[in-house]
């Protein structure tokens, strides 16, 4: 790592030297003359006066700003245009320095064109710093397409039941005209906004509010999509209402209504169905898992929580998209507005209720050493889960004056979760049965989580000198109770468990941070930061055995009960320096962090721990803009993560008596090094797009798993007996954990068939340590993937997509090479939407799913074929009657493979099977002509108080603004 890092730094400084070559830039801002709102996506051309064939150009960003770099001295004409506005021109003379043309105000044209047919090939994409901007008009979709249908036609964008990914990175936030939409739930905006209102799609790394202001990345960036709505589509009402009923009592009903009036946006969504349409995020499902986090991570990339082993206090809560059959009822309201010139408010409320039933069959093969017979575990389970969640999000921005601003962002979530599972499990050692369990687990949990950030930002009169104070708070609490009844059979023993338990946990974190920046020369800036944090968590569990004499649960089981408190305190401060202009940015910094982890345990035995940790946390970033459409970004950062409270507790989780889990009070925090490289090249004229993403992570003191598989009944240190045929897993610190991946995408238009072709390929590798019966094992997993998407760009009447996604996986481990395995899976998909006679809609999709190498019980090759035919009524085609068929061939299955550091698991879960449905849909589209672009100055553009000298969210900025 040291050699690689040294080489990287030398290379970066070489780039810095090259970047000093003499060139100039022209910058400015485009606003609407009527209300001074930002004009997004305006076309800016710079024409050399002595040779009009020589042109440079760009488009304005979400705040109206633009910059054209790499210009020679000379006389130019700048031309600014946007549909519906009168074109503006002015002379620009470059002599010996950059030129700021200031604000260019466009006046709405008195002759607004209502129907414009553009025959020329539209620009597909533009690279603006490290932001990629796609032109929605270059990707034809059918009239009923959603934002998700649109973005998945774009290079590098994929969507599945785990979410939307861009170049292999999961999208965590979707903004609409720069503003939050239903909090941090990407799916709500993408599934509910129609594609026809979208003008452009921007993909970028969204920095925290404090980082946008200072220009220094604090490691809390999120992959984000910003949806820019069309001019004329931001004043009006649009949405749809639908209801359908089908065979097997399947039903689906819902509504999505939007009222847009410039800055004021009100959206209402709701749905009710039993066909697995789920409209929620992980936040809805984790709202009561409070008390599980041991505290904030340190360093620039820090974040609390766990990567590795040990028990999980969230085991009774859902994570992500649910398998099985789900009934969903949800309703949500989103509000966004500007209250005068100084206050901007966005807020949302979302209620979600789900009732999920699922049946699972799984086989798990463990890696064991030569002294231990091969162990396998088989399970059949039936689960019913009911979940209720209320979620609130608010963002309040107050521009006090030209030097001061305040941002407050509270979030609140309430949840109730009811869970019942009936499970049959069995283990084998070699070919011999070793243990079996028949159990029922019932739980009921209620809780809340609350977080809030208060950010005050002050800009001094001296450009580049700023100070900002952020105070972050987090609160969470969970109450619950449950019952476990289990009949367990081992080789030499049979046991019966009849227990009731109560759980309670709470926690809070206070994390202030102060950042001061000072300009250093014309292109440099120094940052000083200090960010302490204090986290307090409590977790109690009381387990009572059934007492036959009392005919009640009165016998406290101290071994299976737990009372544990822990405190995690960090003190972190450091310096960072950055140097750059519009062509090049370089930043390097270092933090020193001192942390203490303290814990007090009463059950199952008294224990006090106190551990100090000190860490030096370096960070470096390099961003180089080769040309208007070509950008390279390299980021190196370090961070620490403390073990969470569940991993520190030594109480044993016996919810599955064959697979016992416990914590480890002796855990240390881990230390992670990450290196990220992104390279993007976009040719706006030819329409091609090329992107490379590479990521690597190395972790010291990685929190992994130690698994004990006894060859005979054995006593564990805290009084628990591990029967032969069962196993115990606990978290431990291990070294030499490494993971890395690369992802490449290439997109081009195919003029011959009026389509867009997107190619992608990638490889990922993980080297994960574990302990199995105190013998170190390394699980090495390699995945090679590739695919393509060919999507039509013919017209709204013909919309087809052909795609292929294949994965070849190689799994090797060091202690049991006979378990080495390779397997292959792919999905081949074809979709067609065809409109005949302007009213008849024919839609069909066919997926082939192949799994090979999983074994005879799980190898599958099946087809999922869905189709519908609809007819549009009324003059404006707003009413549609549709007959749809799901899983026409009745072959749908759900197969998955999960590879961990200790086992390979194959599972088959319950799926939705064939049904037919009749649906009525009414679509509302009512837009007022002549609408003006809304002011979306939300993310801190250059020169604004929100980012004086800072880097806007699409990158490339510097103190030279």
UniProtKB/TrEMBL annotation:
<dbReference type="InterPro" id="IPR041700">
    <property type="entry name" value="OMP_b-brl_3"/>
</dbReference>
<feature type="compositionally biased region" description="Gly residues">
    <location>
        <begin position="952"/>
        <end position="961"/>
    </location>
</feature>
<feature type="compositionally biased region" description="Gly residues">
    <location>
        <begin position="296"/>
        <end position="312"/>
    </location>
</feature>
<dbReference type="InterPro" id="IPR008969">
    <property type="entry name" value="CarboxyPept-like_regulatory"/>
</dbReference>
<feature type="domain" description="Outer membrane protein beta-barrel">
    <location>
        <begin position="458"/>
        <end position="922"/>
    </location>
</feature>
<feature type="signal peptide">
    <location>
        <begin position="1"/>
        <end position="21"/>
    </location>
</feature>
<feature type="region of interest" description="Disordered">
    <location>
        <begin position="933"/>
        <end position="961"/>
    </location>
</feature>
<dbReference type="Pfam" id="PF13715">
    <property type="entry name" value="CarbopepD_reg_2"/>
</dbReference>
<dbReference type="Pfam" id="PF14905">
    <property type="entry name" value="OMP_b-brl_3"/>
</dbReference>
<protein>
    <submittedName>
        <fullName>TonB-dependent receptor</fullName>
    </submittedName>
</protein>
<dbReference type="InterPro" id="IPR036942">
    <property type="entry name" value="Beta-barrel_TonB_sf"/>
</dbReference>
<keyword id="KW-0675">Receptor</keyword>
<dbReference type="GO" id="GO:0009279">
    <property type="term" value="C:cell outer membrane"/>
</dbReference>
<keyword id="KW-0732">Signal</keyword>
<feature type="region of interest" description="Disordered">
    <location>
        <begin position="296"/>
        <end position="318"/>
    </location>
</feature>
<keyword id="KW-0998">Cell outer membrane</keyword>
<keyword id="KW-0472">Membrane</keyword>
């Amino acid at each position: 790592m040291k050699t690689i890092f040294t080489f990287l730094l030398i290379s970066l400084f070489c780039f810095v030297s090259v970047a000093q070559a003499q060139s100039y830039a022209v910058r400015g801002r485009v606003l609407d003359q009527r209300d001074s709102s930002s004009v997004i996506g305006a076309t800016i051309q710079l024409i050399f006066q002595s040779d009009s064939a020589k042109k440079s150009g760009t488009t304005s960003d979400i705040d109206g700003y633009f910059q054209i770099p790499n210009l020679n001295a000379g006389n130019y004409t700048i031309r600014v245009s946007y549909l519906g506005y009168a074109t503006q021109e002015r002379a620009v003379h470059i002599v010996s320095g950059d030129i700021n043309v200031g604000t260019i105000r466009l006046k709405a044209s008195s002759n607004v064109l209502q129907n414009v047919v553009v025959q020329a090939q539209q620009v597909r994409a533009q690279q603006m710093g490290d932001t990629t901007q796609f032109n929605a008009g270059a990707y034809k979709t059918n009239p009923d397409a959603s934002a998700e249908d649109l973005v998945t036609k774009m290079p590098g964008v994929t969507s599945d039941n785990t979410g939307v990914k861009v170049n292999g990175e999961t999208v965590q936030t979707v903004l609409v005209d720069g503003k939050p939409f239903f909090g941090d739930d990407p799916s709500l905006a993408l599934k509910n906004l129609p594609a026809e209102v979208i003008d452009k799609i921007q993909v970028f790394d969204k920095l925290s509010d404090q980082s946008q202001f200072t220009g220094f990345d604090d490691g809390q960036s999120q992959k984000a999509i910003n949806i820019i709505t069309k001019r004329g589509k931001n004043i009006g009402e649009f949405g749809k209402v639908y209801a359908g009923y089908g065979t097997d009592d399947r039903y689906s009903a819902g509504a999505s209504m939007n009222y847009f009036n410039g800055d004021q946006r009100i959206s209402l969504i709701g749905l009710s169905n039993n066909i697995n349409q789920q409209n929620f995020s992980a936040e809805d499902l984790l709202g009561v898992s409070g008390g599980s986090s041991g505290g904030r991570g340190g360093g620039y990339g820090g974040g609390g929580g766990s990567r590795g082993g040990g028990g999980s206090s969230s085991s009774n809560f859902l994570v992500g998209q649910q398998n099985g059959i789900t009934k969903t009822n949800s309703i949500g309201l989103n509000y966004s507005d500007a209250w005068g010139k100084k206050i901007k408010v966005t807020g949302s409320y979302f209620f979600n209720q789900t009732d999920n039933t699922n049946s699972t069959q799984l086989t798990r093969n463990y890696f064991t050493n030569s002294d231990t017979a091969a162990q396998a575990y088989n399970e059949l389970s039936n689960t019913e889960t009911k979940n209720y969640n209320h979620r609130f999000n608010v963002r309040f921005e107050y521009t006090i004056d030209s030097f001061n601003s305040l941002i407050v962002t509270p979030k609140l979530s309430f949840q109730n979760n009811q869970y019942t599972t009936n499970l049959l499990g069995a283990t084998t050692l070699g070919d011999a049965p070793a243990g079996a369990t028949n159990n029922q687990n019932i739980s009921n949990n209620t809780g809340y989580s609350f977080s809030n950030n208060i950010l005050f930002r002050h800009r001094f009169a001296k450009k580049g000198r700023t100070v900002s104070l952020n105070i972050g708070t987090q609160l969470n609490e969970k109450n619950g109770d449950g019952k476990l009844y289990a009949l367990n059979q081992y080789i030499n023993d049979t046991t019966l468990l009849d227990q009731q338990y109560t759980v309670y946990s709470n926690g809070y974190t206070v994390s202030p941070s102060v950042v001061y920046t000072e300009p250093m020369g014309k292109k440099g800036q120094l940052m000083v930061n200090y960010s302490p944090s204090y986290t307090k968590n409590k977790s109690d569990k009381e387990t009572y055995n059934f007492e036959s004499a009392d005919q009640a649960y009165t016998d406290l089981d101290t071994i299976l009960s737990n009372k544990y408190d822990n405190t995690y305190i960090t003190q972190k401060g450091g310096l960072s320096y950055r140097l750059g202009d519009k062509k090049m940015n370089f930043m390097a910094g270092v933090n020193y962090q001192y942390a203490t982890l303290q814990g007090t345990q009463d059950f199952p035995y008294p224990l006090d721990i106190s551990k100090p940790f000190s860490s030096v946390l370096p960070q470096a970033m390099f961003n180089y803009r080769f040309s208007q459409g070509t950008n390279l970004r390299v980021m190196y950062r370090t961070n620490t993560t403390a073990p969470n409270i569940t991993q520190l507790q030594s109480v044993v989780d016996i919810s599955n008596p064959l697979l016992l889990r416990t914590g480890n009070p002796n855990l240390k925090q881990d230390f992670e090094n990450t290196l990220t490289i992104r390279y993007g090249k976009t040719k706006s004229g030819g329409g091609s797009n090329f992107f490379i993403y590479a990521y690597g992570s190395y972790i010291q003191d990685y929190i992994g798993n130690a698994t004990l598989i006894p060859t005979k009944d054995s006593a564990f240190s805290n009084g628990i007996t591990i029967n032969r045929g069962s196993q115990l897993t606990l978290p431990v610190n291990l070294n030499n954990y490494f993971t890395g991946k690369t992802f490449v995408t290439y997109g081009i238009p195919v003029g011959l068939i009026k389509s867009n072709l997107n190619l992608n390929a990638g490889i990922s590798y993980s080297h994960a340590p574990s302990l199995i019966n105190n013998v170190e094992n390394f699980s090495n997993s390699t995945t090679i993937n590739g695919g393509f998407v060919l999507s039509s760009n013919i017209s709204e009447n013909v919309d087809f997509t052909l795609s292929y996604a294949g994965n070849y996986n190689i799994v090797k481990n060091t202690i049991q090479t006979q378990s080495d395995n390779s397997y292959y899976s792919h999905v081949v998909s074809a979709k067609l939407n065809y409109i005949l006679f302007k009213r008849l809609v024919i839609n069909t999709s066919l997926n082939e799913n192949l799994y090979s190498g999983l074994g005879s019980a799980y190898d599958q090759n099946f087809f999922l074929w869905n189709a519908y035919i609809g007819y549009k009524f009324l003059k404006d085609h707003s009413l549609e009657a549709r007959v749809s068929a799901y899983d026409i061939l009745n072959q749908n299955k759900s197969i998955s493979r999960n590879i961990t550091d200790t086992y390979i698991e194959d599972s088959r879960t319950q799926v939705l099977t064939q049904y037919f449905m009749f649906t009525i849909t009414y679509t509302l589209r009512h837009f007022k002509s002549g609408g003006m672009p809304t002011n979306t100055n939300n993310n801190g553009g250059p020169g604004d108080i929100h980012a004086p000298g800072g880097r806007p969210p699409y990158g490339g900025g510097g103190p030279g603004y």
